[in-house]
Specification:
With about 70 residues, this protein is mainly alpha-helical. The protein has one domain. Helix content is about 65%, strand content about 0%. It is elongated, with a radius of gyration of 18 Å. The N and C termini lie close together (about 10 Å).
């Protein structure tokens, strides 16, 4: 049971890092004309970070549910 909490903490840290590494978007840059106003496709590292964030979020959710459910059934 303790190992699941450690794994969940590690996944949480990786999730935080993957979210912080993603591009912030336009932010205040569009206020001063810095935004080109179009859509673009994600490529390379940006695409990897999006997929990694989704996968880590799913793993975190599954671990959280299991950590709540397991003690109730013992």
């Amino acid at each position: 049971m303790r190992i699941l909490l450690i794994v969940q903490a590690i996944v949480a840290l990786l999730l935080i890092v993957s979210i912080l590494l993603q591009n912030r978007g336009s932010g205040l840059g569009s206020t001063f004309g810095g935004d080109f106003g179009g859509y673009y496709t994600k490529r390379g590292m940006e695409k990897f970070l999006v997929y990694a964030t989704v996968i880590l979020a799913i793993i975190f959710f599954v671990l959280a549910v299991f950590n709540v459910w397991a003690p109730l059934n013992s």
